[in-house]
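Summary for the steering committee. One of the milestones for this cycle was to obtain a three-dimensional model of the protein with flavin-adenine dinucleotide bound, which we needed before selecting residues for the alanine scan. The sequence and ligand used are listed below.
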Amino acid sequence: LTSQKTVDYTVVGGGIAGTILACTLKKKEPLARVILIDDIRQNVSSQVAAGIFNPITGRLMSLTWKANELFQFLMPFYTDLERELDSQFVHPLPIFRILNSVSDQNDWTGQSTHPAYSRFLSEPEIVEMKGIFNPFGCLVIQNGGWLDVPKFLSAVKNSGLEIVSGTLPLSNRESLETGLKNLGIESHAVILCTGYRAAEDGLTGELGWSPVRGELLRIKHADLPADRILNKGCFILPYASGEWLLGATYDHNLTRQQTDKGKEQLLKKFSQIMDGTPEILEHRWGIRPATKDRRPFIGAIEEGIYLFNGFGSKGVSLVPFLAHHFADSLLSDKSWADPETSVFRFSG
Ligand SMILES: Cc1cc2nc3c(=O)[nH]c(=O)nc-3n(C[C@H](O)[C@H](O)[C@H](O)COP(=O)(O)OP(=O)(O)OC[C@H]3O[C@@H](n4cnc5c(N)ncnc54)[C@H](O)[C@@H]3O)c2cc1C
């Protein structure tokens, strides 16, 4: 007979969402009994992500949702953990957004002085970069960079978090309860942070998901810069000595493997930034847990069962700030009241 262990919070899923939430709960309330259940599969989004945090994103170069709050919170959060865990995983770097045309240049000369943007970027400038097509200049975005997500996750997980490996069956409440019992856990609250698989599980599948598959390449190339992230229809970030990451594709076809189409798309984008074909060292793929409106799902789905998921393509920037607030609401037994991230905003 398995002996039962009683805990306050069971966090399910050890990607960036579950790991940061479990660690935040423990930090805020060291006496809280927290367990993280994870089944560590291949191609988990957090393990393949490039880890970029960028306040100005997308084709339209919009200021990301909650940019001010997120970006004030993010660097102290990761650098405090670096100090505490005696590890290095966060790499602040300027992001050079390469402009496409004179009209881009004109738009951004005005836009960049707008108070909402001026904190994050300077006016367009012509920056000479060896070998890089850059006739219309760049916007230099500040406060960006990248997080080595796998390194970060293993440092946090090795810092004393209690982890149980296993899959919790999530077709309905009964299967979850039986699953917990089989793992020997009795828990007051369960928080599901299961990534894109939430879209396929009975308990959470109908909420309004729109998962997006992504591919990226780890490449070698002689002439790329090591002190900045380049961005023009794709990103190129300096990953390790002589190696860069080139990504990422966005595809609603959820084929469970890397594809030639994805590789070709990325190499085409690369050729719009510079000449030459890079050597491909690795081809990664994963599925982003995105929702229909690209906002997360946070809050209770049933009594004692919560969701903290739906971070789409921005887990690195969204999770620390939202975990901080969600942990406060869990610890104070208050319900999560933000309508923008309500779990039932599509399903009523
Ligand atoms: C190619 C690519 C590039 C990306 N680049 C970036 C980037 O530059 N910047 C950025 O911020 N984001 C990026 N992302 C998105 C980022 O990966 C996600 O936002 C983030 O990783 C989501 O984390 P998560 O913890 O919610 O989910 P996941 O990382 O999917 O983790 C979920 C975990 O739950 C576990 N699990 C699932 N079901 C169960 C169950 N029933 N029982 C037990 N365990 C379970 C899984 O095994 C997994 O470990 C990228 C994604 C892709 C695919």
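Key point for the committee: The longest helix spans residues 67-85.
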